[in-house]
Amino acid sequence: MSLARFALGLGLSLLLSGCTASARFARSVLPPGVAGPEPHISREHSMVIDEERIRLTRDYLQIHNPALLAELPDANLPESISFEPRLLVVHFTAIPTLTETLETFDKLHIGPDRELIRRNGLLNVGIQFVVDRDGTIHALYPETIIARHVIGLNHVAIGIENVGNGDLRRRRAGAPLTEAQLEANVALVRHLVDRHPSIEYIIGHSEYRQLEHRAHPAHELFHEELPAYRTEKSDPGRRFMRRLRRRLRRSAGGPVG
User: Fold this and answer.
1) What span, in angstroms and rounded, lies between the C-alpha atoms of 235 and 127?
2) 25, 69, 158, 174: most buried, per Cβ within 10 A?
3) What pTM was estimated for this model as a whole?
4) How many beta carbons lie within 10 A of that of residue 45, not counting itself?
């Protein structure tokens, strides 16, 4: 093969690869017209964002996004760690019950069993919403207060945790996600988009690193100061995200294929 033909082939390969990536990443964009009414949301387990949680959050930002921290008000008030939501991140807890999930999120400090996370800030993981296995939606963090739930995106992302440890209908999982949770996620996503028109994207936790790719439409939102601070995630599962996106397109009046 001549050098010219090789260069042409390589160029076409890169072009097609870029087009494939762009098409795959386009799934992250929420369809227009998806906003919907407010579902029932339990506030029974809403968390108090006290001065210690605020301090730990600001310490976390000093490590992972110091430029953002410099722009925030220097105060021990929840408003000093507030943000404008731009995307939604869907998770599963890897914990089989709501009680255990709430106990985990209630702690201020990350546990010693999570060594990599702990080395990169003592702030415990947190989340704005938890959806129980029967579809009940629980609000934990205020919607626009930064919680630690996804690397590189906490400063722009509302998180939705689903109680369970496996993809929808994944038989080998002890507590696979349920149809009731899927329905609740659809309703909650529609409500959040209605409340926050700035929200444009939705991803599964397993997809967060896709935003590091320059072809991703939300690439500019990703910021992580430490290049080596990454973890591999599989939640909430491909089937769950595929079904969720299909249902959201249907609710917006778009194609469901």
Assistant:
1) 15
2) 158
3) 0.91
4) 14
